[in-house]
Amino acid sequence: MMGRLFEQLIFRWVRLFYSRVEVRGSWPDSGPVIYVLNHPNGLLDPALVMAARLERVTFLAKSTLFAMPAVGWTARQFGALPVFRAVDVGLRGAAADAEDMADRNEATFAVCRARLHQGRALALFPEGKTHGAPQLLPIRTGAARVALTTACEAGWHSGLIMVPVGLWYEDMTRFRTRVILNVGRKVGVDRWQQVYEEDARAAVQQLTAEVEKRLEATLLQAESHRLLRRVSLLAAWTAPGEDGHAAGEQLDWSARLLRGHSYLRVQAPERIERIKQTSKSFGIMLQTAGIDNPRDLELQRAGRGWLTKRVGWLVVMALPALAGAGVGAIPWGVIRVLAHRVRRTEAGTIKLLGGTLLSGLSVAAWAMVLAFTAGIWWAVGLLVLAPGCLYAVLRWYELYQETQTAISVRRLQRRRTPLVEYLTRCREALTEAVHDALVFAEKGR
What we know:
Elements: H1 2-17, E1 18-24, E2 33-37, H2 44-53, E3 58-62, H3 69-77, E4 81-83, H4 98-117, E5 121-124, H5 142-153, E6 161-169, E7 177-183, E8 187-188, H6 193-198, H7 200-216, H8 225-238, H9 247-267, H10 269-289, H11 304-339, H12 344-373, H13 376-415, H14 417-444
Parallel strand pairs: 1-7, 2-5, 2-6, 3-4, 3-5
Antiparallel strand pairs: 6-7, 6-8
Helix pairs in contact: 1-2, 4-5, 5-7, 8-9, 9-10, 9-14, 10-14, 11-12, 11-13, 12-13
């Protein structure tokens, strides 16, 4: 019971941490399935999938995690199973030697097959580790081995499918940013019967290669983080449509830009250089004008009524937000320091799980202080109101940022009309140059 409550709490917090979780493609309706995913964001990756899928999925995780008190307990609450890696042999929570590792992994895979035979969902991160590289690492064969042996045990009438899912984070370490789960084309496993019966090892390798190819198709990949950041920023500025900076449109446009870049850097590098210099100059002008998103200059949403409503909400929420800030100031400060001391791939997990734990401890400590100084009912009141006050801090800050941006844009639109018109023309010219370069690249390919 406690585990299910904790699980639901984490699901809610994940949906709160990221302001918009968008699923592109379609989940399987029913039946046994193995999800195969990239792994950029630590423990938040499996929590995000389950929060988006709204069902329990059995995840496989490295065995050493289960030896860590808080992380191990969390993994068990989610029903995760341990995988024993050769690189971990001898470590706490790992296998003692190669033979022990093989035996333990076979026991884990037997549980996986049993759950798949029950029609349940399994998920693996076949890269073998969480990482921040801008490209997918070579994937391992475990998912294919589990899939093929499960189908074989079912007489090749298992109905088992493998589904690649690409995880895309706008900024995985920052609150209230966007996430996309890009569900790719499924792979039916039963149709691999002939290949498996002729050569089981070859079937595993070929199925792994097929899944890897389909997983890559769901991801944004680049030769460097720098190129990926530049392309994502250019996509936010130039994606087609009135709301081109929407997450899905930005992802699609970024993928097109990366494909175009691969061709143009060989066939027409001068086009890339012109776009690079133009976008750099445009970015400097935006920074000088105090504008983050040039599309805001072209929107007319920030009328007097819109601003009045936002200011009203800021006033109404000020008191509970102030109370929440008082309760959460210390734990959030501690978490901010810790998040800067760990790898980027672990920062989101630290913020979510650590923030939840320390915020809860802070509320309990304040409740005890009130119980001894003001009475038990004051303590009860704090326990009841604290979650809402902590949420009010988050929403107040979001509203403040939206309102501040809207006021800045409105001021520019009214007082510096020539600048706004010039920046708008610059964005349109940049968009046209990018579009022409893409057309050239796509025709050439």
